[in-house]
Amino acid sequence: MRPRFSFIPGGGMSAIPSHAELTESLGRTFILGTASGHEVQARLVSAPAGIPMDDSFVCYSALFELPPGVQLPQDVYQVQSPDGPSWSLLATPVRPSESGAAMLCAVMHCVKPALSPSTDAP
After folding, report:
1. Neighbour-count burial of 73, counting CB atoms closer than 10 A to its CB (0-12 exposed, 13-18 middle, 19+ buried)
2. Is residue 82 assigned to a domain?
3. Which residues, listed in sequence order, are joined to residue 87 by a DSSP beta bridge?
4. What is the CA radius of gyration of the chain?
5. What's the domain range around 81?
6. How far, CA to CA in Å, does 79 sit from each of 41, 98, 111?
7. What is the pTM (predicted TM-score) of this model?
C-alpha cells in the first residue's frame, strides 16, 4: 500500500489525519494494513480531543473497534480512510469495548497547522 497524504487548506500535506477528518468519519470502516501485507477492517468509534502540552500543539485520538475474535498488537499500521487517504499511524491496544471487541487507539499530538493568510487583506 502506498501512503497518500491529506492536503491542508492553504497548501501543504499532512502525514496524519486531521481531527475534522476523523470526526467526519465516525462509525465508518477503515482498513488497517500491517507491514506483512495483512489487512483488517476496523470501525472508527471515537475521535476525542485530547490535552495538548501547550497552546502551540493539538491533541486528539482515534479509537478503532476490531472485528469479533481479532486482536492486534501495538504496531505501525497503514490506516486507509473510507474516503481514500491513508496514513501510517502507531496504534496501541486499549481496553475492549462494552461488547468485548478488541480496540486499537492512535494518538495524534502535533504542532498546530499554520493559519493561511487572509485573502481579504489589502
Report:
1. exposed
2. yes
3. 79
4. 16
5. 12-111
6. 10, 24, 21
7. 0.80
Q: List 28's β-bridge partners, or say none.
A: none
Residue 6 belongs to some domain of the structure: no
- The secondary structure element, H or E, covering residue 45 is strand 39-46
- Assign 4 to helix, strand or coil: strand
pLDDT tens, residue by residue, 20-30: 999 999 999 99
pLDDT tens, position by position, 46-85: 999 999 999 999 999 999 999 999 999 999 999 999 988 9
Instruction: Please say whether the dihedral angle defined by the alpha carbons of residues 74, 48, 102 and 3, taken in this order, is positive or negative.
Output: negative
CA 28 to chain CA centroid, nearest Å: 12
- CATH of residue 103's domain is 2.40.10
Q: What would the grid cell of residue 11 be?
A: 497548501
> With contact defined as beta carbons under 8 Å apart, do 58 and 114 qualify?
no
User: Does the CA dihedral 25-39-106-98 come out positive or negative?
Assistant: positive
